[in-house]
């Protein structure tokens, strides 16, 4: 295949409610969508998960635009590609910028599956026909608000609740949740809000029977996490710290975590995601698919990835309506009794809606 034209769009979509983590809060989601058109006239789609502010990692919507416009798109346009695995080799001379790279790579994977007439899930080697949906709930104004949300999502069937924690919104909140919902599958994500100085508090979380604690310590750390994991019973799950297969290998060797959250954008694409998935399977670590408040395009990629067999734990991939009044794909992603049906149509298996995309596009540029 050859990409003969690429359309890059900058979208702005308002979420139903603000999302608040230990690093900040926002409601207007800005992101890039990439449409790659091949020499047969088929379109493949990728979504950049970089935010407009570099608070999750160093990438932003604008740095992704720069990388794509000035380096990644010129490197890939009109190149003969026989398999999507080649995309990371083509980009390997460029350091990091994984979310920008993943935007192109995702579109190439979608196109590859469409050219073969199979679903993206099948192209990746996934077997599941449906996947379990979990949900990530941001920090709320009051504990009562949080309990109400958990109750609602539990009634919708979500398979596990993840709450965001930070100093001052941790032990007392988890205690209230456990009082009201003693059995609900529960985990906590700190987005790096703690240090080893907080060891006593982190030990105290053991009493809440959490499935895991996600990224409690610094976003670039695997050494302190290994020390922490030795001191606490709750499994440590790494998110921000893992950017590659090599990071995962080192974290496993050090004992920094017992679980890994795989985000396609953070690790530079689906090929690298699959390599990390396979490595974790060899070492007996379960993985799950993280989320970055994606639109339907990124969500579709997450669903396809989650069909791989070592995605044992429910991920953060929820239904479109949890985030958006109107998503940009048809049909939208629907959660029924806590399950999402994996589409079997070619590629990502959802149709991008050009009218809706146009409505949310603030800027676009074509490359040939
Ligand atoms: O750490 O997993 C995270 C959202 C924004 C930034 C970081 C994270 C998250 C989530 C939301 O937890 C997951 C989702 O619903 O997409
Ligand atoms: Mg996280």
Automatic annotation (TrEMBL):
<feature type="binding site">
    <location>
        <position position="189"/>
    </location>
    <ligand>
        <name>Mg(2+)</name>
    </ligand>
</feature>
<protein>
    <recommendedName>
        <fullName>o-succinylbenzoate synthase</fullName>
        <ecNumber>4.2.1.113</ecNumber>
    </recommendedName>
</protein>
<feature type="binding site">
    <location>
        <position position="214"/>
    </location>
    <ligand>
        <name>Mg(2+)</name>
    </ligand>
</feature>
<dbReference type="InterPro" id="IPR036849">
    <property type="entry name" value="Enolase-like_C_sf"/>
</dbReference>
<feature type="active site" description="Proton donor">
    <location>
        <position position="164"/>
    </location>
</feature>
<keyword id="KW-0456">Lyase</keyword>
<dbReference type="GO" id="GO:0016854">
    <property type="term" value="F:racemase and epimerase activity"/>
</dbReference>
<dbReference type="InterPro" id="IPR047585">
    <property type="entry name" value="MenC"/>
</dbReference>
<comment type="pathway">
    <text>Quinol/quinone metabolism; 1,4-dihydroxy-2-naphthoate biosynthesis; 1,4-dihydroxy-2-naphthoate from chorismate: step 4/7.</text>
</comment>
<dbReference type="InterPro" id="IPR029017">
    <property type="entry name" value="Enolase-like_N"/>
</dbReference>
<dbReference type="InterPro" id="IPR013342">
    <property type="entry name" value="Mandelate_racemase_C"/>
</dbReference>
<dbReference type="Pfam" id="PF02746">
    <property type="entry name" value="MR_MLE_N"/>
</dbReference>
<dbReference type="GO" id="GO:0009234">
    <property type="term" value="P:menaquinone biosynthetic process"/>
</dbReference>
<comment type="pathway">
    <text>Quinol/quinone metabolism; menaquinone biosynthesis.</text>
</comment>
<dbReference type="Pfam" id="PF13378">
    <property type="entry name" value="MR_MLE_C"/>
</dbReference>
<dbReference type="InterPro" id="IPR010197">
    <property type="entry name" value="OSBS/NAAAR"/>
</dbReference>
<comment type="function">
    <text>Converts 2-succinyl-6-hydroxy-2,4-cyclohexadiene-1-carboxylate (SHCHC) to 2-succinylbenzoate (OSB).</text>
</comment>
<dbReference type="GO" id="GO:0000287">
    <property type="term" value="F:magnesium ion binding"/>
</dbReference>
<keyword id="KW-0474">Menaquinone biosynthesis</keyword>
<feature type="binding site">
    <location>
        <position position="239"/>
    </location>
    <ligand>
        <name>Mg(2+)</name>
    </ligand>
</feature>
<feature type="domain" description="Mandelate racemase/muconate lactonizing enzyme C-terminal">
    <location>
        <begin position="143"/>
        <end position="235"/>
    </location>
</feature>
<keyword id="KW-0479">Metal-binding</keyword>
<dbReference type="InterPro" id="IPR029065">
    <property type="entry name" value="Enolase_C-like"/>
</dbReference>
<dbReference type="InterPro" id="IPR013341">
    <property type="entry name" value="Mandelate_racemase_N_dom"/>
</dbReference>
<feature type="active site" description="Proton acceptor">
    <location>
        <position position="263"/>
    </location>
</feature>
<keyword id="KW-0460">Magnesium</keyword>
<dbReference type="GO" id="GO:0043748">
    <property type="term" value="F:O-succinylbenzoate synthase activity"/>
</dbReference>
<comment type="similarity">
    <text>Belongs to the mandelate racemase/muconate lactonizing enzyme family. MenC type 2 subfamily.</text>
</comment>
């Amino acid at each position: 295949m050859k990409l003969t034209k690429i359309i890059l769009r900058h979208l702005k979509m308002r979420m139903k409610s603000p999302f608040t983590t230990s690093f900040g809060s926002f409601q207007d989601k800005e992101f890039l969508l990439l449409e790659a058109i091949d020499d047969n006239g088929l379109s493949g789609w990728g979504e950049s998960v970089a935010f407009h502010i570099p608070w999750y990692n160093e990438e932003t919507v604008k740095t992704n635009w720069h990388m794509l416009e000035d380096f990644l798109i010129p490197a890939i346009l009109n190149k003969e590609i026989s398999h999507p695995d080649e995309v990371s080799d083509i980009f390997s001379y460029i350091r990091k910028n994984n979310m920008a790279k993943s935007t192109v790579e995702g579109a190439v994977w979608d196109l590859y599956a469409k050219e073969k007439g199979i679903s993206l899930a099948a192209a990746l080697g996934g077997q599941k026909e449906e996947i379990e949906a979990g949900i990530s709930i941001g920090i709320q104004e009051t504990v009562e608000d949080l309990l109400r949300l958990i109750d609602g999502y539990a009634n919708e069937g979500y398979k596990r609740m993840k709450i965001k924690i930070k100093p001052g919104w941790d032990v007392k909140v988890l205690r209230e949740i456990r009082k009201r919902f003693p059995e609900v599958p529960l985990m906590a994500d700190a987005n790096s809000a703690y240090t080893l100085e907080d060891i006593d508090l982190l030990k105290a979380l053991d009493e809440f029977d959490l499935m895991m604690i996600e990224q409690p310590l610094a976003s670039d750390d695997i050494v302190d996490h290994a020390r922490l994991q030795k001191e606490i019973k709750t499994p440590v799950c790494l998110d921000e710290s893992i950017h590659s297969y090599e990071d995962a290998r080192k974290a496993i060797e050090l004992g920094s975590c017992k679980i890994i959250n795989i985000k396609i954008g953070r690790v530079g694409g689906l090929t690298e995601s699959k390599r990390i998935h396979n490595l974790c399977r060899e070492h007996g670590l379960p993985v799950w698919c993280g989320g970055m408040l994606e639109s339907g395009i990124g969500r579709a990629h997450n669903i396809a990835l989650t069909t791989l067999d070592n995605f044992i734990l429910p991920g953060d991939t929820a239904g479109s309506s949890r985030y958006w009044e109107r998503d940009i794909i048809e049909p939208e992603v629907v959660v029924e009794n806590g399950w999402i049906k994996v589409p079997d149509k070619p590629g990502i298996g959802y149709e991008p809606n050009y009218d809706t995309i146009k409505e949310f596009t603030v800027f676009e540029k074509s490359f040939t």
